[in-house]
Amino acid sequence: MSTRLRSRWLLCFALGLAAPGCLSFQKQTLLMRVDPAEDTLRVRLIYEGWHHEPLVAFGQDKNPDHAEMARSLASLDHALCFFTPLLWLDLQDAEPEVAEFAAHFRILAHGHFLNPEGKLSSWQDVQLSDLTELLGRVNRGISRSILEDRDEGGAADDEFDAETRKLLRERAQEGHSWIRLDASGISFHLAASASQWKRWKADVLADVARDDEEGAIWRNFLVENPLSFVQDGVAGIFSVAASTDGLITLQIWNDVDSYDPAFLEFLRGGDLPHDVTLRIDEDQTLATLLEEF
Fold first, then answer.
1. Which of 95, 157, 189, 223 has the highest CB neighbour count under 10 A?
2. What is the pTM (predicted TM-score) of this model?
3. Can you spell out the DSSP letters for 126-182?
4. Which residues are CB-contacts of 127 (< 8 A; sequence separation ≥ 6)?
5. How many CB atoms lie within 10 A of CB 31?
6. What pLDDT does 96 receive?
7. Where are the domains of the chain?
8. What do you get for the CA distance between the two ends of the chain, in Å?
9. Sheet hosting strand 235-241, strand order edge to edge
């Protein structure tokens, strides 16, 4: 399993969120501004390239159900996802274990548009309240995932060496802040043995060098984001710094060549389910969404 997929599955298990069916997007851009005085985070989520991509391993049908996909897309007035469709949060129908997490989110506005390549895309403006408490919940969820993985003899035993497992579990027990976010940027704080760090770096370099979609996704991520990495002994910090005006920007690719315009054509055909209302704003531009936040 690639390092990119490992990190996403860790977040999925930590937060306990569900996938939205077969609706997927190619790229997501997150624009973020922290207000320390109000303890809030404003986020603009931009999803580009909505299309059908079933999770066959989870029993999803390979044949697209465009009507159901339209219902999922229409739910962006009360649902959202971060980084990947696997991390989908329905604010109106959250599972009990994530209901308190979902209570921090409020969707202020949303819309649908076509990106410069003519691909079906969407945007949302979201406000996260009580940011300090929310980050605490996320970090405790990651720690819980690490400790439960130990108790159940999970996949981490295959992915990490013994020293790294010990370091991660010690930090999990201490209530470590794995993810930190403030007006200066967002950072991810890990711990690993020297040999584990070498292995991870080698894995990333191998993924970047791949002549396939996985390699393209990694290259896009590393080139387009203002990333930094600092290793100090066993500690490693990945960070994305805010710009001088306090804007934090992060771009995530899910795929680069899987887009199929069939879903957009279905929406334009007007044969929507009676319970679905969707309007594509032909005047909305990606450039405006990126510049005016």
1. 189
2. 0.89
3. EEE-SHHHHHHHHHHHHHHHHHHHHHTT-THHHHS-HHHHHHHHHHHHHT---EEEE
4. 40, 41, 42, 43, 105, 106, 108
5. 20
6. 79
7. 3-130+246-291, 133-241
8. 36
9. 179-182, 185-191, 235-241, 227-232
